[in-house]
Specification:
alpha/beta; Rossmann fold; seven-stranded parallel beta sheet; 7 helices; 46% helix; globular; Oxidoreductase; oxidoreductase; Sc_DH/Rdtase_CS
Length: 247
């Protein structure tokens, strides 16, 4: 495994859960991290913690549905640390419900954040990766939909599988070795993702599953670090991370 010293990693959705855990772990392993999220006070506090522990961390307020915000994130990483080596697309929401509920606003929100947000990141980072001659795109996807969408999760799974498809397309377009891609699919992870679920019954059911079977966000952060620490000629295309007790 290679050290992450000298690497600059920008992470969306870094105000908690998987994003926060990833930022803290990568900083401990030597990377400079740029935390991006809408909650400025939260990412500022996490960045202060990282710096107090001897790490390097900056912040950038970002709404991933806005292409200009992702452009600003990439620029902020370059301005602060001279380059951007990795973009971790982690921001995501899950206002899941049965299709019969016709929650079209929730459908649109998931498309905008989960899929369009990732594409905005690609549009911002890919030209820089090409110019630098190297770069790594990591997206936090989901085990939802891997084997067919579960009830209530059709649109959520569709957005996540669309991200997986974009990753595969980018991989096939990047056989020159300049850009590497990694899609990481978590199962039940103890995060606040359930807070974005609009159906009260589904929200409480999901929270119970997370409380009983969920594993810490650090498990996903370790998977991110594993993918990033590979030699330049090795690409970890996809990793599934789930509790051993998850069906």
């Amino acid at each position: 495994m290679l050290s992450l010293h000298g690497k600059t990693v920008a992470i969306t959705g870094a105000s908690g859960g998987i994003g926060e855990a990833t930022a803290r772990l990568l900083a401990r392993r030597g990377a400079a991290v740029v935390l991006a999220a809408r909650r400025s006070e939260r990412i500022d506090a996490i960045a202060r913690d990282i710096r107090e522990e001897g790490g390097r961390a900056a912040t950038c307020v970002v709404d991933v549905t806005k292409a200009e915000d992702l452009q600003r994130l990439v620029s902020a990483a370059i301005d602060r640390y001279g380059r951007i080596d990795v973009l971790v697309n982690n921001a995501g929401i899950a206002p899941i419900s049965p299709l019969a509920d016709l929650d079209t606003e929730g459908w649109s929100a998931m498309i905008d954040v989960n899929l369009r947000g990732m594409l905005n990141g690609v549009a911002a980072a890919l030209p820089v990766f090409r110019e630098q001659g190297a770069g790594h795109l990591v997206s936090i996807v989901s085990v939802a939909g891997l084997y067919g969408a579960s009830p209530t999760m059709a649109v959520y799974a569709a957005t996540k599988n669309a991200v997986r498809t974009v990753h595969e397309g980018l991989r096939r377009e990047s056989t020159d070795g300049v850009v590497r891609t990694t899609a990481i699919s978590p199962g039940y992870i103890r995060t606040d993702l359930a807070d974005s679920m609009t159906d009260p019954r589904i929200r409480e059911q999901t929270r119970k599953h997370m409380d009983v079977a969920g594993i810490p966000p650090a498990a996903v952060a370790r998977a991110v670090a594993f993918a990033l620490e590979q030699p330049d000629d090795v690409e970890i295309g996809e990793i599934n991370v789930r509790p051993t007790v998850q069906a």
